[in-house]
Specification:
The chain has 240 residues and is mainly alpha-helical. Helices cover 66% and strands 2% of the residues. It has a two-stranded antiparallel ribbon. It is elongated and about 75 Å long.
């Protein structure tokens, strides 16, 4: 039991340091005006930089304030690059509404930083997407041909996927291709989109892109192992 006391004390000290790092940016003048308008992935990077700065020499309030101003100015310079690449990360007043995917069986879910960094939320998003795709397919009428209906279904699914920053699977249709082969191409692509596991893999790939791109934009890309370290600090497997 005695051996666990130092560990608990260290954990409490580390948590207090993290809590202060979260509060500190908002307490500075520049942070008070701009911190909450930065993408959440950038806010977390600022907090992480402050935690690291506190572990170095002379972490007094004056030095921390000077460091915070520099870090936030750097973030303000490069945040638009992240917001342009991933619009769902934009938290400014004039930001576009975040994409929302509804469901009749589950609560609706929107694509944002918290959804993308939560395994459970991503699974719910994938389930909701398959429900939307199925609903769109059932609305299609066979007015012309089966191939035309497949194309309509594929286009509808593609529109929904692009709304949440996903690319639909490619359909390779060549000139003079037999109609049955064309139909099989569409059927294969549509089946993939109705597979929750396929969508989940694509969403997790989007998450990796989002975190890696953000780290590169903020000039935090130091070494090859940086990806796994970033993922560990951003991803919340048990978040709901």
């Amino acid at each position: 039991m005695q051996g666990t006391i130092p560990n608990v004390a260290q954990q409490l000290k580390a948590q207090a340091s993290r809590d202060e790092a979260i509060r500190f940016p908002v307490e500075t003048s520049i942070g008070h005006h701009f911190f909450k308008r930065l993408p959440r992935v950038v806010q977390e990077d600022i907090e992480h930089q402050l935690i690291k700065r506190k572990q170095r020499k002379n972490p007094n309030r004056e030095n921390l304030e000077r460091f915070t101003v520099d870090v936030i100015r750097h973030a303000l310079k490069w945040a638009p690059t992240i917001e342009d690449k991933f619009p769902f990360s934009d938290t400014r007043k004039d930001a576009k509404p975040k994409p929302v995917v509804s469901s009749q069986a589950r609560p609706y879910i929107q694509l944002d930083h918290f959804t993308l960094t939560s395994d459970q939320a991503l699974e719910r998003l994938a389930l909701n997407l398959t429900e939307v795709f199925t609903h769109d397919i059932h609305r299609i009428e066979l007015d012309e041909s089966y191939l035309s209906a497949l194309d309509t279904a594929y286009q509808a699914i593609g529109t929904q996927m692009k709304a949440v920053c996903l690319e639909p699977p490619k359909v390779e249709i060549a000139d003079q291709m037999p109609q049955e082969d064309c139909e099989r191409e569409y059927e294969s692509a549509i089946r993939r989109c109705l597979d929750v596991r396929y969508l989940l893999r694509k969403l997790m790939y989007l998450r990796n892109q989002y975190i890696e791109f953000s780290q590169i934009a903020l000039d935090r890309w130091v070494e090859e192992g940086a990806v796994s370290l970033c993922l560990q600090s951003f991803v919340h497997p048990l978040a709901s």
